[in-house]
Amino acid sequence: MPSVLSFTPELWQSIWLTLKLASLTTIALLVLGIPLAHWLNVSRWRGALVVETLVTLPIVLPPTVIGFYLLILFAPQNPLGKFWIQMTGHTLAFSFSGLVVGSIIYSLPFAVQPFQAALKAVPLTLVEVARISGANVLQVFWYVTLPIARRGIGAGIALSFAHTIGEFGVVLMLGGSIPGVTRVASIALYDEVQKLNYPAAHSTALVLLGISFVLIFAIAILQRRTPSDAH
Amino acid sequence: MHRVLVILLAVAIVCHRGARAGELSIAAASDLVFCLEDLHRAFAKVHPDITLKVTTGASGNIFAQINNGAPFHVYLSADMRYPRELIKAGLADEGSLTLYAIGHLVVWTASGEIDISEGVRSLTSDSVHKVAIANPEHAPYGRAARAALEHFNLWDVLKGKLVFGENIAQTAQFVETGNADAGLVALSIVLAPNLKSKGRWIAVPEHAYPRLEQGAVITKAGTTNSASAAYIEFLASGEARRIFDRFGFRLPE
């Protein structure tokens, strides 16, 4: 057991970085995930099944596979890497934006699958009635789809956030452990253990445990409060 | 239910017996990752009856694992400090401690466009955006890199460019893929056959960092394995020394 806990500024910096990464990833997944989920639901194109498989893949794919491919594909001498440097002025590896890209891929199924289920639960007749009554696509989404699907979308948001907090392998491969840039809490914990700095490791682990518990508990409460499904 | 428990217990016991006789588990510093292939091929010729199981990682990482009961028999560290600490803690055999190699630090780039002829001073150039070093907190080569940069008063200057490899092999991989423009890595890695022709390297002056004396030791778990002693003995053999030499480890006299 920890003899002394040590909550240093470095610890809070790494926790802050983790929360920032999870927040930005979740926002990006919300923006990308809902249209993608909708398209996967309605698409009759045969290739859609391949896309759906690709989207689901990160559930089983070791994070190191994602990290490795990103590292190779976005190396500065490769076309994608050159393009990335032109756009951002730095390499994808060792940058916070690189971690966001990695996390979006890593957490994609945890957003898209609940989104798909939520959107499927919206009765098509309601949407059609709204359209016939003259509502445009955005209005239908805002006034019809969203109110019905909000709980499922909320679940997708919570799950992507929680899953990104648990990220380790992608960051280990891509990050380069730069304090304040890529040394997120899970990496900081790993570094402290290797230094045999157990007080710092215990403190980081405890904070991560606390955050995760609160998050999952909140999801459970949200689900408990509305036991009957919308449909 | 009980039957399941009994089976699980039996499996656990069988697994717990660990390495079979004639099987030796080696945990080695990452700077040895390429050298070990040649070394162990030579070892297999002398001791065909001993099967080696090899794990590589940052010396500090392995040290922490042995401290927490990892069942390695022989530990090849990239410094002497960690094996000595294990001995002090009663987790390794003092009599087996062997200085088997001395490591060297080099500046390495895989890019044809970066000039490193000035050694570490070249790293201040604007064409160098990212410099990879091993994590100084648990990798001996990282500590050496930090000492060398401090020696040249470049640590603060270069701080913003530094990225940290989890061990010296990952550090080299950052450089090899071009994600880092240059790095401070082990000579033994840039001399590996498949990396020899990749990019250019220049040695860091030896007075700039403490000597990287690399120590091997038999762990407590290894003392009951007779193959451990054979392995340590092999490290001091002429054949092993020739291989270490080829990988740029200047050998102890």
Features:
heterodimer, A: 231 residues, mainly alpha, 10 helices, B: alpha/beta, D-Maltodextrin-Binding Protein, domain 2, 5-stranded mixed sheet, 10 strands, 21% strand
What does this structure look like?
The complex is a heterodimer of chains A (231) and B (253). Chain A has helices at residues 9-42, 48-56, 63-73, 79-88, 96-120, 124-132, 137-165, 169-174, 185-194, 198-225. With 231 residues, chain A is mainly α. In chain B, the strands form two sheets. Chain B has a five-stranded mixed beta sheet, sandwiched between helices. In chain B, strands 7-6-8-5-9 form a five-stranded mixed beta sheet. Chain B is 36% helix and 21% strand. Chain B folds into two domains: 22-102 and 211-246, D-Maltodextrin-Binding Protein, domain 2, CATH 3.40.190; 105-208, 3-Layer(aba) Sandwich (D-Maltodextrin-Binding Protein, domain 2), CATH 3.40.190. With 253 residues, chain B is of the alpha/beta class. In chain B, helix 2 (35-46) runs antiparallel to helix 10. Chain A binds chain B through residues 71-72, 74-77, 81, 90-91, 93-94, 172, 176-178, 191, 193-196, and chain B through 58, 60-61, 63-64, 67, 129-130, 132, 135, 137-138, 162-166, 174, 177-180.
Concise account of the structure shown:
The complex is a heterodimer of chains A (231) and B (253). With 231 residues, chain A is mostly helical.
What's the tally of helices of chain A? 10
Spans of at least 5 consecutive residues with low confidence of chain A: none
How many separate domains of chain A? Answer: 1
Would you report the number of β strands of chain B? 10
Order of helices and strands of chain B: HEHEHEHEEEHHEHEHEEHH
Cα gyration radius of chain A (Å)? 20 Å
Q: What general form of chain A does the structure show?
A: globular
Return the average pLDDT of chain A rounded to an integer. Answer: 89
Mean pLDDT of chain B: 90
Number of domains of chain B: 2
Shape by Cα distribution of chain B: globular
| Beta-strand content of chain A | under 5%
CA-CA gap between termini of chain B: 63 Å
> Can you say what the CATH homologous superfamily of chain A is?
MetI-like
Kindly report the CATH topology of the largest domain in chain B.
Answer: D-Maltodextrin-Binding Protein, domain 2
Number of helices of chain B: 10
Task: Give the CATH architecture of chain A.
Answer: Orthogonal Bundle
Structural class of chain A: mainly alpha
